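INTERNAL AUDIT FORM
Audit reference: QA-55
Scope: verify that the stored structure record matches its stored sequence.
Auditor: D.O.
Record contents follow.
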Amino acid sequence: MRYCQYCHQSYSETWSWAALFGLNAELLLCLSCTAKLELIKGDICRICGRSFSLFPEQYRQGDSCYDCIRWEEDEEWKGVLQQNRSLYVYNVFLKEVITKMKYRGDAELVKAFYPIARSKFKSNSRKSLLVPIPLSEERQYERGFNQSEIFAKILTSNVQPLLKRVTHEEKQSKKTRKDRITKKNNPFIVTDKSRVKEQSILLIDDVYTTGSTLRYAAKVLKDAGAVHISSITLAR
């Protein structure tokens, strides 16, 4: 008998040989909560990993969505973030889960995604330095933890905090899309450039929305000498 990490209701694990030997990649959530999540699968944007099934055909061109095409048409940002992959669609239920985790102090919730994240992203994390997106000092103090760092540790214990956020901003969840993509001074710096040079970097964050946060982080890493920068997020 287990207890759901979100609703705390008891549930029985589905029996299988994989479960018996601890090899399954089931969520640590009850069936009711699991059913509310939407795994990203099928035809996706080759850059940001967005599911093409969720928006009209006219908003894509070939294997890329128009959001990514606009980023790639800007010489400053072309090729900065080479690929993002996410586990789930950022639907109403997952928004509630992440809100509970981030703003109500329930850091343990991220453990619900350990098995499936490890299973899906094991190969992605093998040859890269995992770098979580940092919080500002003020936000870290307010929250008490960095959800991106906790999510990164799902994939490996060798997490490298090589970025520092030097500006304190309004919460991303309160910003409009226009606010998110408006050009600004880069909020990140690299704390140890010698460890970044000629490395492949895998950025870790909780949500990919417009891609601006991940690209600003990727930009300073690229300027510091990183050769390949991609990202993984829980939600897209």
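Auditor finding: record pair retrieved intact. The longest helix spans residues 92-103.
Action required: none
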